[in-house]
Write a structure and sequence with these properties.
The chain is mostly helical and 372 residues long. Helices cover 70% and strands 1% of the residues. It contains 14 helices and two strands, in the order H-E-E-H-H-H-H-H-H-H-H-H-H-H-H-H. Helix 2 (57-79) packs parallel to helix 9 (241-258).
């Protein structure tokens, strides 16, 4: 059962991030055009846009996420021990809000560390958007940032396996999902739209688990991506670049790790641990299928091309906009049932996972037909 205060906090987070992103995106676009910070289609053969398009959308997305997140941590610190009678609205909700505010304050060091990691990846993305870095350099930086979070701050899952396996497994997960959203940023509106859908579904799952901090952060991610999506939906007038896609993938991966999917006291079942795999099935399918295609051809898995899921749909006759909408629907088909995983038994869990696998398998089969 999702409580009213948690729902309100998540809604405010979504609105704040959206307003910041939707207001900043056109300003970033104007700045990028003036500075010639643009993506030129002639630079690389796999680009599909016909004219130079501004980068800089990642700045608006990152600001939409990090500015309210920093404000949320500051507000929690200021209000957690606010004297009674000083703040009427807080006093009204005090019985339910104060414990949560103190919980957010306790998570402040972790939250600040996550923000620092996102900012580091954002800066690396901006540099790469301006002058491409090598895949090895980007991976090393991603690994360093992720290890600082998993080994340094303790944001990790699979603790039952022991400290080292937990760190390695969580680090691999965060790097994989970060790159999955980077890979998915290959068509107008795709990565941002999928980020909105998966963030909202994951936020609902974390709210069902009784969390406050994580769903609010996820709604910030959804709002930041949604504000940018208005200008990025086909035909896009601005791109997020690596400065945006790396931040989106990183934040979603970290929030998935921080979500409590199994808590006997909350009445949730162990099958909740499958939620991230189900929610992110389509981005992971896109990344894995592209890697397999490139390995078969003997080329670098980080070499840009038109072998992504979206490109393959277009090759089969769909327009770019229809291909993007189709992937949205596929994401919803696999991710929506994930909300039920933590609160149902093994039979329902098997059915949900089987449905997810069936959808992905159908996609793979249809894609393999008449493949050239």
């Amino acid at each position: 059962m999702i409580s009213g205060p948690v729902l309100m906090a998540a809604g405010v987070s979504l609105l704040l991030a959206f307003l910041i992103s939707v207001a900043l995106t056109p300003l970033c676009r104007a700045w990028a055009v003036k500075r010639q910070f643009v993506d030129r289609p002639q630079d690389e053969g796999h680009k599909e846009h016909e004219r130079p398009t501004a980068f800089g959308g990642g700045i608006a997305i990152t600001a939409g996420i990090l500015v309210p997140m920093g404000g949320m941590l500051l507000a929690a610190w200021l209000l957690a021990d606010w004297p009674a009678g000083r703040f009427v609205f807080l006093d009204k909700w005090a019985p339910s809000w104060r414990p949560w505010l103190r919980g957010v304050v306790e998570k402040a060091p972790v939250g600040l560390s996550i923000m620092a990691g996102a900012l580091a990846l954002h800066i690396v993305g901006l540099i790469d958007d301006r002058r491409p870095l090598s895949a090895r350099v980007k991976l090393l930086i991603q690994a360093a940032v992720t290890l600082a979070i998993t080994a340094g701050v303790g944001v990790r899952s699979a603790e039952a396996l022991g400290p080292l396996p937990a760190v390695l497994l969580t680090t691999f997960w965060i790097i994989a999902l970060t790159n999955a959203f980077n890979f998915m940023d290959n068509m107008d509106g795709l990565s941002a739209g999928v980020a909105v859908l998966t963030a909202v579904v994951l936020a609902v799952s974390s709210m069902v688990a009784g969390q406050v901090f994580v769903p609010c952060v996820l709604m910030l991610v959804a709002g930041g991506a949604a504000g940018f999506l208005i200008y990025n939906f086909p035909p896009a007038t601005i791109f997020m670049g690596d400065a945006g896609s790396l931040v989106l993938g990183y934040m979603l991966a970290v929030c998935a790790v921080m979500t409590t999917f199994y808590d006997p006291e909350m009445g949730t079942t162990p099958f909740g641990v499958l939620v991230p795999v189900v929610v992110f099935a389509i981005p992971l399918y896109d990344m894995i299928s592209v890697i397999i295609h490139r390995l078969r051809l003997g080329v670098s898995i980080f070499r840009g091309d038109r072998r992504h899921f979206s490109h393959r749909l277009v090759k089969r006759g769909l327009s770019p906009r229809t291909a993007v909408l189709t992937i949205y629907l596929a994401t919803l088909a696999t991710s929506l049932p994930a909300v039920l995983l933590p609160v149902h038994g093994w039979v329902a869990a098997l059915l949900i996972v089987a449905q997810c696998l069936a959808v992905v398998t159908i996609i793979a089969i249809l894609e393999s037909c008449n493949e050239s």
